[in-house]
Structure formats: structure tokens, C-alpha cells
Design brief:
The chain has helices spanning 12-22, 37-47, 63-73, 88-97, 109-120, 128-137, 149-159, 164-171, 175-189, 194-203; strands spanning 3-8, 28-34, 51-55, 78-83, 101-104. By secondary structure, it is of the alpha/beta class. The protein has two domains: 3-120, Response regulator (Rossmann fold, 3-Layer(aba) Sandwich), CATH 3.40.50.2300; 136-211, Arc Repressor Mutant, subunit A (Orthogonal Bundle). Strands 2-1-3-4-5 form a five-stranded parallel sheet, sandwiched between helices. Helix 3 links the parallel strand 3 (51-55) and strand 4 (78-83). The longest helix is centred in the last third of the chain and has 15 residues, at 175-189.
């Protein structure tokens, strides 16, 4: 089964370029294209893609607001922020909104495909440098609920960059159960993405910073 992708960008040439790159990979399928955040939200509701590639600077509704709305309404839909400039403020805002990843538009096709597949598989990928900056700036959850032993194990593996499939294999459980545990973890911690949960795990020492999944 292919990974279904929604592309949101107000520049047609960018959308066409992403479509060209992504559809060279037989595991990926573009199911929709949006020209602004409002259309991205509408199409996400309608199509329920696996991953949204979200430009941050768009008219009508920007990518940050659209990401927050999509993650709130459709928690199974992953969002990767896609932008032309690497700015701390934009990175932090995207992560707070619930984005799973953050990519520059000049990312090569192979890395882009890898990031989409990683997001769809439930894999957190953070370079130590990015993780360190995010940990400093993104606030920890306030008064998180206590996790069960199994949820703690899942969170630890998630923070080490394991995919849902890998976590299931490590813990000898089915992948659907992993997804349920992850949903419970996000709810208990009061966060909107696996990336935020992973940063929390690193912050409290549950996983070392240098073991976070790394972006190639």
C-alpha cells in the first residue's frame, strides 16, 4: 500500500516539482495539492492523507495554523513543515503546532522521500543539533499524567528514532497496539506530535540526546 501525500504550497512550480520527485518512488502517491492553509485543512479532512508536506508561508491561512488545526482534528495525519528558510522561530512554531519534521525546500529527493516514509512509519528523526535547540526552546508539558510501564517503554524507543513497526518487534506486540500506546502517550503528556513526546523523553533523561533518530 502506498503512502498517501497531500502537498500544500502557494507556488505552483514547487508543487509540480514535489510531485515529480515524490512520484518517482513507487511507495509514494500524491493524492491532493493545496494552494493555502485553508485548502490544506479542507483537503486533509476530505482525503485523510498519511502525510502532509506543509509550506509555512501561505495566504489565507499560514502553514503553522493549518498544521495545528490538522493535528488537532486528524491526529493520525502527520505533517512535515517545508520551508525555504531555516529560522529558529519557524522551527519552534512548527513543532509546537504538531509538525513531525522540518525540511528545507532544497532538500534532495532521496532525503525528502526518506522523511515522508519515516513520518508515515511513526519514526522521529532529529539531528542532535536540532534536538538540542528544540529542547531549550520548546516548553515541557505541564503536569503530565503518569505513563504506564509499557507506555514508558514505547516512549523510550520512539525517542530513539524507532518506527512503529520496529517498536512492535522490539516489544513483541502488534503495530496497531503501538499506535494505541502512542496516542495514549500524546494525550497524557498533552502534546500533539511524536516529535514533542520524543523531546520530552530526552529532556527527562529517558533517552540520550545522541541516540535520537538522525536525519540523513
Amino acid at each position: 500500500m502506498s503512502i498517501r501525500i497531500l502537498v500544500a504550497d502557494d507556488h505552483g512550480v514547487v508543487r509540480r516539482g514535489l510531485e515529480m520527485y515524490l512520484e518517482l518512488d513507487p511507495e509514494l502517491e500524491i493524492v491532493g495539492q493545496a494552494v493555502d492553509g485553508a485548502e490544506a485543512l479542507r483537503l486533509a479532512r476530505e482525503l485523510e492523507p498519511d502525510v502532509v508536506l506543509m509550506d509555512l508561508l501561505m495566504p489565507t491561512m499560514d502553514g503553522i495554523a493549518a498544521t495545528k488545526a490538522i493535528r488537532s482534528e486528524l491526529p493520525d495525519v502527520e505533517v512535515i513543515a517545508l520551508t525555504s528558510v531555516l529560522e529558529d522561530g519557524a522551527v519552534f512554531d512548527a513543532m509546537r503546532a504538531g509538525a513531525t519534521g522540518y525540511l528545507l525546500k532544497d532538500t534532495d529527493a532521496r532525503a525528502l522521500c526518506q522523511a515522508v516514509k519515516a513520518a508515515a512509519a511513526g519514526q522521529v528523526q532529529l539531528s542532535p543539533q536540532v534536538a538540542e535547540r528544540l529542547i531549550r526552546e520548546v516548553p515541557a508539558p505541564e503536569s503530565p499524567e503518569k505513563l504506564t510501564r509499557r507506555e514508558t517503554e514505547v516512549l523510550q524507543l520512539l525517542a530513539r528514532g524507532r518506527s512503529n513497526k520496529e517498536i512492535a518487534a522490539d516489544l513483541s506486540i502488534v503495530e496497531k497496539t503501538v499506535k494505541t500506546h502512542v496516542s495514549n502517550i500524546l494525550a497524557k503528556l498533552g502534546v500533539s506530535s511524536r516529535t514533542q513526546a520524543a523531546l520530552y523523553a530526552i529532556r527527562i533523561g529517558l533517552a540520550p540526546l545522541d541516540h535520537a533518530g538522525s536525519v540523513k
